[in-house]
Amino acid sequence: xxxxxxxxxxxxxxxxxxxxxxxxxxxxxxxxxxxxxxxxxxxxxxxxxxxxxxxxxxxxxxxxxxxxxxxxxxxxxxxxxxxxxxxxxxxxxxxxxxxxxxxxxxxxxxxxxxxxxxxxxxxxxxxxxxxxxxxxxxxxxxxxxxxxxxxxxxxxxxxxxxxxxxxxxxxxxxxxxxxxxxxxxxxxxxxxxxxxxxxxxxxxxxxxxxxxxxxxxxxxxxxxxxxxxxxxxxxxxxxxxxxxxxxxxxxxxxxxxxxxxxxxxxxxxxxxxxxxxxxxxxxxxxxxxxxxxxxxxxxxxxxxxxxxxxxxxxxxxxxxxxxxxxxxxxxxxxxxxxxxxxxxxxxxxxxxxxxxxxxxxxxxxxxxxxxxxxxxxxxxxxxxxxxxxxxxxxxxxxxxxxxxxxxxxxxxxxxxxxxxxxxxxxxxxx
Length: 430
Prior knowledge:
This protein is of the alpha/beta class. It has helices spanning 74-83, 102-115, 138-143, 159-171, 183-186, 195-200, 207-224, 236-247, 258-262, 284-295, 311-314, 331-340, 347-354, 356-362, and strands spanning 2-12, 17-26, 29-34, 42-46, 51-54, 56-61, 86-91, 119-125, 148-150, 175-178, 191-192, 204-205, 228-230, 252-256, 301-302, 377-387, 406-416, 419-423, 426-427. It contains 14 helices and 19 strands. The chain is globular, with a radius of gyration of 20 Å.
């Protein structure tokens, strides 16, 4: 079936396009991209007044399958992704069992083909069982399609093992995605360490725990000549370390998240467990440093770190609740509200952080609107005003720190390989 998207403002940072034009889709591919296209027998999508962007990519999600389906599964997680405007997600390996072998990589790919409504990329584990002791089957996982390697959600990897892993992934031109927190400094804390944690009498998780770990990982990347990606950057010092490393030519990239860009540790004063996440939401000076890092290109991507939990897990005293919350369905609205509508970051830069940049880091052929490319497309209404209501989420994780917040900007259409999977917030893939 042919699809014609008419009259939208096409923004594709990868091709430096920002123009009003039409897009013709045939057989799941972009067949033409120019003004005033005409085609017989097309499904027409009126995009006048809307932004047409490459399909959004979330390079850091926890789909929880296999083994943790009470929190999320591939079906519910990919529907949440479609509702949020994402056409591709990359899932972390901290499942039960851990994704540390080719068999499990292939298993997730098969489940995604059967149950997923968006593209699913697989991130394999760095160490067996995420125990940080022995390298996982990295080569076999990459051969089976793993796009990156990470022990996010597992135990802190010692320097010797990380060095060996970097040398290994370097041979395959793949990136290690690193959760940077020194466990000895961070393990007992459950909010940002600062004046507010002291006031609330809550054990702090200091920024230096992230900064020390990031410094180590950057130095090892520089030593080995291999690529490292710093996940969910939350701290001012980490931004500066990455900035300096990039200036030296180190193969380092980084992401931050919508919650770090928009919230401060003041939200913890409510003792709402929906605000608990690792690394923790930090103070205003850290938030401003992250925004500056995104603007100057130090931070390459925005990822959600979508980490859903079952209601009964989060419904307990703050210090005992697990860290993480749902992020796929609020991400774009939060970022547009906090950055675009405040004039802090331009629309093209925001779109780049959700498209071409994560595609480049993961080494996938996506993130651009061009003839011959897969028709993975997100249609955005940057001015759409809406209120976050987690009861309407597609994800099983109904906890969000943005509950009841008024946001401005939303994906109103998601197209995956030429097929509409979301229209006006409703997943229509079934």
